[in-house]
Amino acid sequence: MAALTHQLRRFPAALKALRLRRGVQQKAFAIDLGIGAAFLCGIEKGTRAPLDDGLLEQAGRLLELNTDEQAQLRSLAHHDRLVHQMELRGASDDELQLISSALTAWHHMSPQQRTDWLANVRQLADNVVQVSAMTRRRLTKEAAMG
Which residues are in the HTH cro/C1-type domain (predicted)? Predict the structure, then answer.
């Protein structure tokens, strides 16, 4: 699962791309953030967790990110943290891919789209539970009839 989680990480490439677009060297950026260059290298390679919220804010200032870029970077850090936490809790590869895809879609939706989508997902979950229960009852009845 660790290999899949690494593939699902979105934050490392985004941070590195923003840093490079601004022409900032990794070592200088690490120093300005108050972290070690090796630590930042690990973050950008995806072998370390994303920057925490305080360092994310500081990185945004240092890289002179606009509001959209800052929001995107926060969203990607949040995505990676959640996927990692689910991996630690034993989520399967399919579950990790579902969570990653859902989070990615979620962060591209408007508030109304999120509300509608969540309602649809809840309805789907209710329908699946009902169909599953009906199937179990039918199979139990068939087994009893022998």
Answer: 15-70
Question: What is the pLDDT at residue 2?
Answer: 65
pLDDT score at 89 = 94
pTM: 0.80
Domain 2-92, CATH class in plain words: mainly alpha
Q: Dump pLDDT digits (tens) for 22-36.
A: 999 999 999 999 999
Between the alpha carbon of residue 111 and those of residues 107, 115, 116, 117, 121, the distances in Å are 10, 6, 9, 10, 15
Q: What's the one-letter identity of residue 38? A: A
Question: Strand, helix or coil at 52?
Answer: coil
- Exposed, middle or buried: residue 51 (CB in 10 Å: 0-12, 13-18, 19+)? buried
